[in-house]
Amino acid sequence: MKPTRSVHVVGGAITPFIGKFHPDFIWKGHPDFGKRENPTIEELIHTVAREAMADCGLSGDSIDRGVIGNFVGECFVNQGHLGAMLAGADPGFRGKPFHRVEGACASGGLALYSGIEAINSGADLVLVAGAEVQTTRNAKDGADFLARASHYAEEREIDPFTFPCMFARRTKAYMEKYGGGLEDLAPVVAKAYSNANRNPNAHMREVRMSTEQAACASETNPTFLTNPEYRDWLKVSDCSQVSDGACALILASDAGLEKLGHGEERSVEIVSYGVATGPLGRVEDYTSMGITEAAAQQAYLSAGWNATDVEIAEVHDCFSITEVLLTEALGFCAPGEGLRFAAAGETTLDGSIPVNTGGGLMAFGHPVGATGVKQAYEIFRQMNQLCGDYQLARAPHRGIAANMGGDDRTCVVTCYRKGS
Amino acid sequence: MKPTRSVHVVGGAITPFIGKFHPDFIWKGHPDFGKRENPTIEELIHTVAREAMADCGLSGDSIDRGVIGNFVGECFVNQGHLGAMLAGADPGFRGKPFHRVEGACASGGLALYSGIEAINSGADLVLVAGAEVQTTRNAKDGADFLARASHYAEEREIDPFTFPCMFARRTKAYMEKYGGGLEDLAPVVAKAYSNANRNPNAHMREVRMSTEQAACASETNPTFLTNPEYRDWLKVSDCSQVSDGACALILASDAGLEKLGHGEERSVEIVSYGVATGPLGRVEDYTSMGITEAAAQQAYLSAGWNATDVEIAEVHDCFSITEVLLTEALGFCAPGEGLRFAAAGETTLDGSIPVNTGGGLMAFGHPVGATGVKQAYEIFRQMNQLCGDYQLARAPHRGIAANMGGDDRTCVVTCYRKGS
Question: Is residue B107 part of a domain?
Fold first, then answer.
């Protein structure tokens, strides 16, 4: 789909993504344990909303609409109705349309989708936010909450860790079809950590992970599934992080850019968007991402692009296999070629199509509702050379983001352009 | 706000709203207990999606988009990602944009809002659904889940039944400001049950409630709050029902009407919409609904209407006081006049502005996410003389719906017109 009015990303804000192994994360081994607590979801949401407006020099009065992506706040923090919580960030928001969208891990991308359609509908300045807090509960409870992204009644029982097991199933199916072993995903993992080590906001900014470490199960990198069929097809290092964090963007129409009165030099245009959904619990092929492909086709077609136009990509690497499958679904390489594409370095910071330059879900972190918003913000920042130690040598002009929910059941793909 | 392209409601479907006291509701005292179960949320969603398409003679292929309102499926049925569950209703939906929106009890209204903006953005036929299942858990657990519509960390503890207590607080404040007692709300309650007794889909279709019964606390109609300040300001009969149910609509652009090739004579236009949000946990005045007023002002202004143009209203009577406050917020009567307005019969089936003709949330029932969609469907059905025993004598031409979430924190108001 093409926006019916021009849509520009004009600024944004992000909190650090934190959780286990992040130096600022408060847990029982932290020196500040008992003295202070990790930020609440309200603090995260209000922080990024205010900082995104400050980043653009905007007051709350000037914002026409707000939308927030969140997956499962009802379970982790007993909180729904986050549109109204976002509306509490500034007195100028009172009485305006704010709401929450949800599509599992694609919730942030859906917020972007709703923000674009708000501009289509006449809004000039829209606040798009995403947030999640997940560190309030232990890993088993968390896995159960996250299983609400699957068809719970039919799919929950595949393993106590439902989603890790569903993607181990994909790894097994992929390797059996195309050849290879779990160790062949190590370059994807090592690249994620290497990028995150350059990113001050990354959950894993201080954790090193070599290709060798990522390749082998070990005491610190064990397999952990119970399902005997899939247990050997996933290690801890193949998983994205359980993170807390938030991200917000300001979208503007052409009239919004004029109201802004500045910053046009930073603005990045959203040239097209695609959204696709598949029936929950009815995955047809574990070796490809058909719903993501459908969303990408919509977005490419409307942009008039093909994959060779892309200079930077943010893809939803909820597990290592997912990044491989998404590079194929976005057409960067042929089906079955994703492992070789990664191993050849094509997706690294100096590769032909840098993928997940800030570390992706595996190492930047994955506060679920924030992820899709963060993807757009990363592309905005790379295009504006704001990425510090992980800035690409040549700022990209054309970028794509693919934010996927569940087992390839909802996908939002967006295409970005800056300059020619 | 005015739709940027014409938006028409062209058909829909609804399940019965069921729960305690409904003859079809399976519980341990039901003769079918152990033999069959109440419908799952998936069955409800798929049923209304398919029946809404059948109502319009449409196949799944012809639907461009889908959106579903649901409040708290993550808690009651362990299920999020309902956009993808809705997408499972028909093979023709595969690969299309479907998503879920949430704004507490205004979730259904937000689905309508997103559906309108999808038409604004170029879609021609949009499926708008709402659903909730709440009877899986006991009343105390349910009250805790529903408290996620409040600012949980700050407001949960007002009472084990958070929301009933928040509205008892409004009742007390209103009566202290304007005079009156809890018994003065009885005509609002009795009208709701009287209407529902004519409605085969109503949760309370077989439960009688006279004004006298509604006026007095009794063994079958007790007060139940714990908070001593508010305990005497709410009885069971003042509350909406804990129901399971779903509703779906088909929205069409002008081009969508042409694709439909028929049914134009039934179509009802959505002439305007207003959406307003207030900061969670920061209600300024318990004796009025400021956020609902803001949404109504947006909608009236865009429609070029005032309250005297309205011939039928669906308002969010989550509690008896709420219907009174909403008739004031929508301008049907002045602030403080709502009790007298109701007592004078102005809101009954043969009143000047019939309100909640099918029984409203108190007696039609309140499957949360379905409610906002049902409101639109009720107006569509009244305008098309499809309401059977509760059909208004003169089919209305102009109607309004106000779907409110939390303690007046999110409100969606929509204006409908059929004919001149």
Answer: yes
Cβ atoms < 10 Å from Cβ of A232: 15
pLDDT digits (tens, 9 = 90+) for A167-179: 999 999 999 999 9
Cβ contact B80–A71 (<8 Å): yes
Q: What is the CATH number of the domain that holds A48?
A: 3.40.47.10
User: pTM of the full predicted structure?
Assistant: 0.98
DSSP result, A233-273:
G-BGGGBPP--BEEEEEEEE-HHHHHHH-S-GGG-EEEEEE
Angle ∠(A103,A106,A111) on CA atoms, nearest 5: 85
For A287-340, what is each residue's pLDDT tens digit? Answer: 999 999 999 999 999 999 999 999 999 999 999 999 999 999 999 999 999 999
φ, ψ dihedrals at A402, nearest 5°? -125, 110
At position B149, the amino acid (one-letter code) is A
What is the separation of C-alpha B186 from the centre of its chain, rounded to a whole number of angstroms? 20
B204 in a structural domain: no
Q: pLDDT tens, A216-257?
A: 999 999 999 999 999 999 999 999 999 999 999 999 999 999
Task: Specify whether A366 is catalytic.
Answer: yes
Q: State which residue of chain A sits closest to B79, comparing Cα positions.
A: A148
- Six-digit token pair at A252? 């503007």
Q: How much is the pLDDT for B420?
A: 67
Closest partner residue to B279 (CB to CB) among A94, A156, A295 is A94
**Residue A263 pLDDT class (50, 70, 90 cuts):** low
- Which listed residue (A366, A387, A411, A415) is catalytic? A366
Contacts of A121 in chain B (CB under 8 A): 1, 4, 116-117, 120-121
A362-376 b/e with 16+ CB inside 10 Å = b?
bbbbbbbbbbbbbbb
Can you give the residue range of the structural domain that contains B31? Answer: 8-136+242-264
Q: Which of A85, A114, A278 sits opposite B84 (nearest CB)?
A: A278
Domain total in chain B? 1
* Rounded-to-integer distance, Cα A272 and Cα A274, Å: 7
Q: Residue B398 domain-assigned?
A: no
The answer to whether position A122 is within a domain reads yes
In terms of C-beta density within 10 A (0-12 exposed, 13-18 middle, 19 or more buried), how is residue B217 classed?
middle
